[in-house]
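Ticket #4471: structure output looks truncated?

Reporter: J.K.
Steps to reproduce: submitted the chain below (205 residues) through the standard prediction queue, then opened the result file.
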Amino acid sequence: MLRKGLADSINEDPNLTTCAQTGSAREAMKLAAAARPDIAVVDISLPDGHGLELIKNLKAILPHLKILVLSMHDEAVYSARVLRAGALGYVMKSEPPDSVLKAIRKVMRGEFHFSSSQIEHLLLQIAEHPTKAARSPEELLTDRELEILEQLGRGFTPKAIASHLHLSLKTVQAHRENIKRKLGFSTAPSLAHFAFSWSRDRSSR
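Returned output as attached by the reporter:
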């Protein structure tokens, strides 16, 4: 429903039109290759993948494609990651349609669009010495590790995560061990408890 509403808002703009839409990362790759859009609006959470991987894959086949992220996930966690993946902006789903259209127009012009607080945060990250410690625990994780931390926070078992992400159970378990080490947890239950609290805290913002 949100995707249809956004498409309707875009199509009401005389200078914009929606050429394709889908809720699947796999289908998005096919549609993008066929329609070759100027801009793609993508989410972080997808039923068959992760938005960060989709951004990277889209940029691989369409290097000049401009990408805006529209998501319910906390911008503070993902702004730097989507920027590194190749997106130019980030908008929360709680923003009104006019704000989303404004962001689309900015990204279409090749400009960055992030909230003022995140622009400051990103500049601070760039200015920091590269050896300085991460500002928060989740910033220590790779994109894949963060994805698995989110899945753990939603109560999924390693086996379920492996199936959802199309990975081997051994790979997921290895990532979980890396997450435990990086975040300083000695047991899987303590990590699961942190993941649940972390996920709940981000969703309540």
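Triage note (M.O.): checked the attachment and the full token line is present. Confidence is low (pLDDT under 50) at residues 129-134.
Status: closed, working as intended.
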